[in-house]
Specification:
By secondary structure, this protein is mainly alpha-helical. Helices cover 69% and strands 7% of the residues.
Length: 183
């Protein structure tokens, strides 16, 4: 029975090493770690190969070993694929979670100036009217500002405090101010 306990302890150790190696690779892919944990992976692969040649009598431990070995092989294939994508320059690190907190803080500190936005949209609208051949004077800056305020309130009541973006749409006969949610 002592051999069985020793084998079970070794399988526990291998399982723990796989979890640690997975964490190290995820940190490497996220840019936290500077070097790939290659040596750890090599040592773990050697340990797993050692168990391949070993005859395991107990069915439950044999099943557990096979699960551990297949999980390690799946992770290895995944890590190799990501490493290949990094080498080809096609992998984008998952740093968006790190950047969203700084971006959301900068968005909160930099409020949108309604007058400047209304002036910008009024100028773009008058240029679009000229390009479309629409005669007459366009809406004043005050009318554009009041329109933007009412649209913001409608969107806030419908979707909450999500940021909105205003642009000029020239797809129809007359240019219009288009309201959309920022993503």
């Amino acid at each position: 029975m002592d051999e069985r306990r020793q084998l079970a302890q070794q399988l526990d150790d291998i399982q723990q090493q796989i979890k640690e190696l997975e964490i190290h690779y995820e940190q490497y892919f996220a840019g936290i770690e500077k070097r790939e944990p290659y040596q750890e992976r090599k040592n773990l692969a050697r340990t797993i190969r050692h168990f391949t040649n070993r005859h395991i009598v107990w069915t439950d431990l044999k099943f557990r070993y096979q699960g551990i070995a297949s999980r390690f092989m799946s992770y290895s294939q995944y890590w190799d694929r990501i490493l290949r994508l990094i080498d080809e320059g096609k992998y984008h690190r998952h740093t968006t979670r790190l950047n969203t907190t700084t971006q959301s803080q900068s968005k909160k500190t930099k409020p949108i100036d309604p007058k400047a936005e209304a002036t910008r949209l009024q100028q773009e609208l008058s240029l679009a009217r000229e390009n479309c051949g629409v005669t007459g004077t366009g809406p004043s800056t005050e009318k554009v500002a009041s329109f933007l305020a009412t649209q913001r309130e409608k969107i806030r009541s419908r979707y909450g405090d999500k940021p909105v973006e205003f642009s000029i749409d020239t797809s129809g006969e007359k240019p219009r101010i288009k309201v959309s949610l920022k993503k």
